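Action item from last meeting closed. Structure (404 res):
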């Protein structure tokens, strides 16, 4: 199947051709016709599956025939990085000059954003907090919104944005098209979908918790005090091209970055305390190859669009098993093989087992010599019923009834 068979017009087909898009991804094959029809949609897909183009291409086509004043499309994203990535994709796909887009994110100059809004954009891409700040300043109105996109909805809920989302929903017209994209279908997402969408089509690309097939996963079992020594050993002994190191806290991210810089590694870091220009510079340097190692908190697990990450190293085991899937999904992209290494101390064993249960497979264990590692006494068996092959499933969405 090609993009023309999905119902896209000549303008969108030319945009696809200019970007080298030849064959639609599974989420694009299923979502584009639904969005073109103006129906509500729930798309369950990981970052990196082409979902941004899956909603931008049909939205742009539906905007094309008419010109109306006001913000007609609102796209909400959980992080600045993801919002900027969507803006880049919009800029590449949009062929109509009148359909301008503005990005509203925290950490950027608010006066500049207000000036951009005065130029009457058609599309707003925003993080929830900054969007509401500008609404409170009466810098924009959502009364003309025709399409609302909630991207990475599960991450927005994890970050505590549910009250902000509810307020946004109260400000947009009830008669609209709503597209909700999420990597997981938790009860919270179901409740949000039930209160937000009208008879949505549910599209699932692969099952919950499925990891990329091109990623080799390994767990290094060591003593807690040897974590930094092992990280240095791996980076200095192995031939790693471009490495993304995940830590749980901003403090650990800063500490590791300074240690690696002192050892002459080309390193940078990204976390929520860094300014927007600093975060953009760190991502740009990593994407362009000037930085070999990027140390990050989970803020970079979603929205980081770099195809050539050779290794992901989990310095800290993530708090939530789902975050493991998002972290290692930064490697093994665009048909390239990748490696994911997780440093596991004795206190992390239960978290690793929860990850194995989620992904439906055991992670290869390695006990490196000289780092105080020890094998666990027993490993919890993986739930075989969760081992479902990846694929695309489309059905009407019928949420579970709320218990009384």
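Sequence:
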């Amino acid at each position: 199947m090609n993009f023309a068979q999905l119902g896209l017009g000549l303008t969108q087909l030319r945009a696809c051709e200019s970007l080298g898009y030849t064959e639609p991804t599974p989420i694009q094959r299923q979502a584009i016709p639904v969005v073109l029809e103006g129906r509500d949609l729930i798309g369950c897909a990981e970052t990196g599956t082409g979902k941004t183009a899956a909603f931008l291409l049909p939205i742009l086509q539906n905007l094309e025939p008419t010109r109306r004043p006001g913000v007609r499309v609102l796209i909400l994203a959980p992080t600045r990085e993801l919002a900027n990535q969507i803006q880049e994709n919009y800029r590449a796909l949009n062929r109509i000059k009148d359909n301008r887009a503005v990005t509203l994110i925290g950490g950027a100059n608010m006066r500049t954003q207000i000036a951009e809004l005065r130029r009457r954009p058609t599309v707003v891409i925003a993080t929830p907090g900054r969007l509401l700040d500008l609404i409170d300043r009466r810098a924009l109105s959502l009364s003309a919104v025709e399409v609302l996109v909630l991207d990475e909805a599960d991450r927005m809920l994890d970050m505590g944005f549910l009250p902000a989302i509810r307020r946004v929903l109260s400000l947009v017209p009830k008669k609209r098209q709503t597209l909700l994209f999420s990597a997981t279908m938790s009860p919270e997402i179901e409740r949000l979908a039930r209160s937000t969408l009208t008879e949505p089509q549910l599209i699932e690309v692969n099952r919950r918790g499925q990891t990329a097939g091109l990623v080799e996963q390994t767990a290094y079992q060591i003593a807690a005090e040897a974590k930094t020594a092992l990280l240095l050993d791996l980076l200095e002994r192995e031939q790693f091209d471009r490495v993304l190191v995940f830590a749980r806290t901003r403090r650990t991210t800063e500490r590791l970055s300074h240690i690696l810089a002192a050892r002459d590694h080309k390193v940078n870091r990204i976390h929520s305390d860094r300014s927007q220009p600093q975060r953009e510079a760190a991502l740009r340097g990593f994407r362009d190859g000037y930085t070999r190692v990027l140390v990050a908190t989970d803020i970079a697990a979603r929205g980081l669009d770099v195809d050539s990450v050779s290794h992901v190293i989990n310095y800290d085991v993530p708090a939530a098993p789902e975050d493991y899937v998002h972290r290692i999904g930064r490697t093994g992209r665009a048909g390239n093989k990748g490696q994911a290494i997780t440093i596991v101390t004795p206190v992390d064993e239960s978290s690793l087992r929860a990850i194995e249960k989620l992904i439906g497979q055991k992670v290869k264990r390695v006990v490196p010599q000289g780092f105080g590692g020890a094998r666990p006494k027993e490993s919890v068996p993986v739930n075989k019923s969760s081992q479902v092959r990846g694929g695309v499933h489309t059905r009407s969405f019928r949420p579970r009834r709320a218990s009384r």
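Note appended to the action item: The chain has a mean pLDDT of 85.
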